[in-house]
Amino acid sequence: VQLVESGGGLVQPGGSLRLSCRASGFTFRNYDMSWHRQAPGKEREFVAVIRSPGGTTNYADSVKGRFTISRDNLKNTVYLQMNSLKPDDTAVYYCSVFISRTYYWGQGTQVTVSS
Prior knowledge:
Layout: E1 2-6, E2 9-11, E3 17-24, E4 33-38, E5 45-50, E6 57-59, E7 67-72, E8 77-82, E9 91-99, E10 102-105, E11 109-113
């Protein structure tokens, strides 16, 4: 299993970013995919999940209405569109998949929201 995130960077408050996570090594379309984040000095926290099949989504209250998770099963990729970004959104963002009682994680991508 390999997960590779991309798309992070520095953005001003109120700005937008789209993160991508390319997956390989498993049958992507069969599994729920999620995004998590870890801010400096804090524990990793759940951000969003998109289920499979069906595409049902759930979000942390802190990002609801601002972030959108989506997936492209042909490209084995999950996305996180982040709008109206706030300084509190600054963190390393990770995608994850749970397979056979094991969580797999990518290396993470840094998102910094600052003026």
